[in-house]
Automatic annotation (TrEMBL):
Keywords: Cytochrome c-type biogenesis, Disulfide bond, Redox-active center. GO terms for cellular component: cell envelope. Gene3D superfamilies: Glutaredoxin. The keyword Oxidoreductase does not apply. This is Thioredoxin domain-containing protein. Residues 56-218 form the Thioredoxin domain. PANTHER family: THIOL:DISULFIDE INTERCHANGE PROTEIN DSBE. It is found in: Cell envelope. It holds the Pfam family Redoxin. Coiled coil: none annotated. One of its GO terms (molecular function) is oxidoreductase activity.
Length: 228
């Protein structure tokens, strides 16, 4: 059984919010907050020893949805196309402190498997205003979201493709299975299109995610069949 510790995540916010134009100051504050998180986690105890395989989404197929390109991508991507690859889906937002704390580690994961054709990282940016089950029609504010997301990527000189769940169809279908969702949320999908593990929030270390990716990428062991 996996061990659970306190994880840090951001909750959705109201649509009308004020953004600071001083990105460098914002990132600096997030770094300082990240150091505080690491200190708190170290005081609370060791991090998670393995993937969150007990989440209610685990074992379920990824809901059918189309993700629209936001940055560094030209075409939309369907979740049906995840079959045949090991896919890490990352829900994040440029407004989300814990998301920004884990961002450098996500970039390291992308770099580590850049030569692996069987792995793909699908970051899905959000403006933070979606609320599960809200009665009114929802649509991401893509113009500001694109601007803010580009500023984050620019801090790391990254060309990582970023997508958007425009009408929150994927998120709505996921929370129908279980409302255990926050920012960030990482979902590991196997080659069979089934969800293998889910991490909600940031626990200060993405080592369990990297370990789970490696395990999914390893080819199945062939059984030795002896001669009669």
């Amino acid at each position: 059984m996996p061990r659970f510790v306190s994880r840090f995540m951001a909750t959705p916010r109201k649509r009308n919010y004020q953004r600071s134009g001083n990105v460098l100051l914002f990132v600096l504050l997030c770094v300082l907050a990240g150091l505080a998180v690491v200190l708190i986690v170290s005081l609370l105890g060791p991090g998670s020893g393995g993937p969150a395989t007990s989440h209610p989404w685990v074992g379920q197929p990824v809901p059918a949805a189309q993700l629209q390109p936001l940055l560094n991508a030209d075409e939309p991507i369907d979740t049906d196309s995840f079959v045949g690859k090991v896919t890490l889906v990352n829900f994040w937002g440029p407004w989300c402190g814990p998301c920004l704390m884990e961002f450098p580690e996500l970039l390291q994961i992308r770099e580590r498997y850049t030569d692996s054709p069987d792995f793909q990282l699908i970051p899905i940016a959000s403006d933070g205003t979606w609320m599960a089950g809200q009665p009114d029609l929802f649509e991401e504010e893509t113009e500001q979201l694109k601007h803010d997301s580009q500023l984050v990527l620019a801090q790391y000189n990254s060309d990582m493709p970023v997508y958007v769940d425009m009408n929150a169809r994927l998120r709505e279908d996921l929370v129908k299975m279980s409302p255990n969702f926050g920012y960030p949320t990482n979902i590991l999908v196997g080659r069979d299109g089934l969800i293998k593990a889910v991490w909600v929030g940031y626990g200060g270390d993405l080592t369990p995610i990297n370990r789970a990716i490696r395990a999914e990428l390893e080819p199945p062991k062939e059984e030795n069949v002896g001669n009669p």
